[in-house]
Design goal:
Shape: rod-shaped
Helix content: over 70%
Strand content: under 5%
Number of strands: 0
Number of helices: 1
C-alpha cells in the first residue's frame, strides 16, 4: 500500500495530467473565442437589421405621404372630370336645341 492520499497523482503522472489540463484549457479558450466571435457577428447582424427596419420605416412614411398627395390629386382630377362632363352635357344640349330650332324653322308648315 502507498502513503498517498486518494486522488493524488504520482510524479510520473504529473506531466501527463498537466498536458491534458493544458489541452482542455486551450480547447475551452478556443470555444470561448468562437462564442465571442459568434456573439459579435450576431450583434452586427442585429445592428444591420435595426438599420434596415429604420430605413423601411422612413420609406413607409415617405410612401404614405406620396399616397396622400396622389389621393388629393386624384380627387381634384375627378372633380375636374365631373365639371367637364357637365359642361359637355350642357354644350351638347345647347347644340341639340339649336339644331332642333333650325330644323323646325326649315320645315314647311
Amino acid at each position: 500500500m502507498t502513503d498517498r492520499p486518494a486522488g493524488s497523482i504520482s510524479a510520473d503522472q504529473a506531466p501527463t495530467e498537466i498536458v491534458a489540463a493544458a489541452r482542455r484549457l486551450a480547447a475551452a479558450l478556443e470555444a470561448l473565442e468562437g462564442a465571442v466571435e459568434r456573439r459579435a457577428e450576431a450583434d452586427r447582424d442585429e445592428d444591420e437589421l435595426a438599420s434596415r427596419i429604420q430605413a423601411l420605416g422612413a420609406d413607409r412614411s415617405r410612401l404614405a405621404d406620396e399616397l396622400d398627395g396622389s389621393l388629393v390629386r386624384t380627387r381634384k382630377l375627378e372633380r375636374a372630370n365631373r365639371e367637364i362632363a357637365q359642361r359637355l352635357d350642357s354644350a351638347i344640349g345647347t347644340i341639340r336645341a339649336v339644331l332642333e330650332t333650325e330644323s323646325a324653322e326649315e320645315e314647311p308648315s
